Amino acid sequence: MTNKGQSFNSATSRTPELLCQFGALGHMPPSAPAICCDNLTLTYDELNARIAQAHGAFVEFGLLPGDRIVLLLPTSPEFVIAYFAAHRAGLVVIPLNPLLGTAELDFILSSMLPSLIVISASSADMPAAGYFSSQNESLSGIAPILCFGSSDDEIVSLDVLMERADPTLPSSPRGLSEEVLILFTSGTSGRPKGASLVQQAVINNTRYSNETLGITTQDTLLCPLPLSHVFGQMVLMLGALMAGAALVLVPRANPKRVLEAMSRTAPTLMAAVPTTFAALADLATTERERASQGCRRLRCALTGGAPLSGAIAEAFERAFGRPLHKGYGMTEVGCCIALENVNKPPTPGVGRISDFLDFRVVPLADDSLDRGELELRGSNIFRGYYIDGILTPRQSEEWFPTGDLVQINDDGTITIFDRRKELVIRGGYNVYPSEVEAVLLQHPDVQLAAVVGVEDAKLGQEVAAFLQLVPGTKIEPAELADWCRARIALYKYPRLMAVMAKLPTNPTGKIVKRDLDRTLLRPVATIAETYPTNTPQN
């Protein structure tokens, strides 16, 4: 099955009507709130002024259009200021999470060789902070560093440069087909790779998400996500500020801080990973008044970045009286592949694929024709990966395999079944880990579940499950195996299990399956087992 999407003309000529959306803010009265973060509120006029100062500082520092700038900044007004200023200067932005470790930073910085690194004193207690001390010899020769806020004498203060800079310098926008972002993947399958995105992809993504979510100047968007991640950056930050809406930032987002920000600012739209919504639902049972205040204007709660279990969706709607809608995206597509219609009740799928994308479903050899791997094509798709600092380009008409196994529903929406590489083939039978995980998550004592395939001499692969239980609960793995046996085909339930205090996750809350310790797995002898485990059953 192949569907033709639509796209803008991706010619290299600069088109003012489009470019004014990127690197420029939405048209709002100067006194309208643009950013709220803790006790700080910046109006659009104030934010524009600070962006102009930072733009001047970058240009006067010697940066030229096409130079690379690393933003190692937390979710904060400083990130927004530096991000928009960099794009006005025609720089290529590389946003990195301050939670990255020194080995990851060494690898990325030494391979990408940026012209400037911007950090913040507000993230001094984060893992990356020590990396940028003046004593770190590995930084020598990589790039100069500018710091928001106070810093030691060896690092130049960006605030001081902004105060001295000329805020009237003209912008130097990039062309529609020119690179503007390098976004590093989460690295769940190995070393992180930098996905190169052009300006057209960013504009298409923001236009699609804003139109689908119906974002207007009347909206307030709450962001507890890392702005270095494509979800928070594209859907929330760019979505809000290019539409002239208000953006509420929640740095160091934990459930209490998120709920406090909700009750204080009354957002109309918020987005977070499923684990955040699960924690909010738990907290709402003891913070009923704040929960009620927080959702008084809420018209949309959007989740993505990881599969949403029915239990989390039900718990959030029970606590806040609002349904959770789903989005589906990838770094390589600049974020959005599909979003649900937020004006209708949620469905089992994840919405319709963006009109800016062509798509096709390539069936598996041994599966039904309506299910297969999703492949995409269009101006939203990344140019290629930077591997060890060298761009491996893609052809513009080349189909991009997402690695996701999907089904196109009768109403045109898609349902995601699993990652193709995570498909477990047990004795010739396909087992989709997400299906087994969904059954495990229905159990009231299971908080998180990760299902993988492990090598088996007789069957090829065996189904294994790693579990994180609800705090204060205890259950035998054999009971959970029987729970699964009663709900799915006998060849699908996990014969190996491990209960862990905490499953490994990345900064956005997604379980990192490659970090699961397979040595913890133990065979599960279930009470109801009545046939040899090496004999597949229907």
UniProtKB/TrEMBL annotation:
Family matches, as InterPro entries: AMP-bd_C, AMP-bd_C_sf, AMP-binding_CS, AMP-dep_synth/lig_dom, ANL_N_sf
Species in which this protein is naturally found: Gimibacter soli
GO molecular function annotation: medium-chain fatty acid-CoA ligase activity
Protein family: Belongs to the ATP-dependent AMP-binding enzyme family.
GO BP annotations, alphabetical order: fatty acid metabolic process
Domain AMP-dependent synthetase/ligase: 29-386
Keyword Ribosomal protein set for record: no
Keyword Ligase part of the UniProt annotation: yes
Domain AMP-binding enzyme C-terminal: 435-510
Keyword entries, A-Z: Ligase
UniProt protein name: AMP-binding protein
